[in-house]
Every structure is written in C-alpha cells, then in structure tokens.
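Hey team,

Filing this mostly as a record. A colleague (T.K.) asked me to run one chain through the structure pipeline before their review meeting, and I want the input and output archived in the tracker in case anyone asks later how it was produced. No errors, nothing strange. Just documentation.

Input sequence:
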Amino acid sequence: MGLPYEGQVAVVTGGSSGVGLACVRLLLEQGAKVAFCARGEGRLNDVAAVLARDFGADRILWRAFSVLDASEVNAFAAEVQTRFGRCDLLVNNAGQGRVSTFETTTDEDWRAEYDLKLFSQINPTRAFLPMLKAAKGAIVAVNSLLAYQPEPHMVCTASARAGVQNLLKSLSIEFAPDVRVNSVLLGLIGSGQWTRRFAAREDQSISREDWYANLARNKGIPLGRLGDAAEAAAAIVFLGSRAASYITGAQLDVSGGLSRHI
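Output structure:
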C-alpha cells in the first residue's frame, strides 16, 4: 500500500512554525510534495534547510510573503503550477489571536483582525482554486473553537473566527462537488502564543510542564493538558486526504474536550 499523499501536492500557509510546520512535515512523511509560505524569511529558510535535508529539496517549495498581499499569493500559486503542476490540498493556516475586550478594541483593531482572518482564507483560496478544481482537491482551514465558543477577553478574534466559519460553510456548498472544504476548530495547542505566554509567566520558577498543567486545569480541559501541534496536524491532514472523500462542510473539534457546544 502506498503513502496516503503519494503523487499529490499540498500548499500550507503559515508553514514555518507551530501547527503549520507540523502539517508540512506530516504531509512530506505521507508522500506529498509541499509548498509553504510564511512572513519571516529567516525562520522560513532555516526550516526549509532542515526539511530539504530530511525529505529532499526537490519535494519542497517555500517563499516569504504575507498572504494578505493578493499579488504575492497569486505569484506563489503560479510558481507552484510551474514547479509541481498541480495542487491537491490547500491548508489555510490563519494567524494568531488578538487579546482584547470590546472596550479595549479600537476601530483599527477590528479592521485589522477581520482583514487578517478573512483574507488569509480568501486570497489563497482564489489563487489556488483552479488547480484544486482540476485535481478534485480539498481545502482545510485552521480555525479556532472561539468561532463557536467565544471568550470575553478575545471578543474581536472570536467574532472574526465565526465569520470565517460561515464563509467556509458557504464555500463548501459553492465548490461542491469539485473541491471539498472543511475546517478544524483548535482549542489550546502548546505552540506559538502559549509558548510566548509561558516565557512571560509571573512565576519564573514554575516548569513548563506544571505551568501547562495548571493552565489546562484552570481552563477546564477534560483531557487535562494542552494539545500538541502534531495532533492538530493529524486532524488537518486526515480531512485533506482521500480517506475523507465524503466529508465536506464539516468542522473537526481538536480541543481535548474543551468544546461545550453540541
């Protein structure tokens, strides 16, 4: 039996760290060629060097730019077409959350957050849609549990995330039967912003393990811990695979049981 993604091409935005990087690595392990992008050129080049060593430079393509720049995204799609000739999976891995209440969120914050959350989905989807249709491929959006279960200290991000989820449901209908569109709703994943918050903890004597355990307890996560980026990637890669060929318009909760909605 061959690898699940053998002969396929995947594109991952925000692919230089955290969940995005975990997706890139897992897709390569499962046989795909992978094109990925992120804003920070230095880190992106470092990551690419390791992946080229582990999987071969001929199987990866990487570029540094913001997915909010439609012209850059379009150029990236054209390069993927030239280099690999197809795109079977697009993983739209949106940016981090904004901590703010309604009273502390400015008009500029609202506009910036909606611009980031929506157009980080819209621009790559527009650019890669022709290739995805030709391949009968899939889009998997990385979204947050906040879309259904908002928290008052993240009012701006939660609102934008809900808008993204509505957009994805609409696209799943519009693009069917040619392209499947699904999402994962992430809870607390131990990467990115939580790593930074741990570094800035008040009690510098507490260990990472204990700090994360306390966080999981305080948040009421039934599994008693934060998730790992690799666990989120496994869900994303499943939804993008042929094993999920009859799943579209769905959202997969990856939150350790934190979800309270039905």
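Quick notes for T.K.: The CA atoms of residues 25 and 51 lie 8 Å apart. The longest strand covers residues 138-144.
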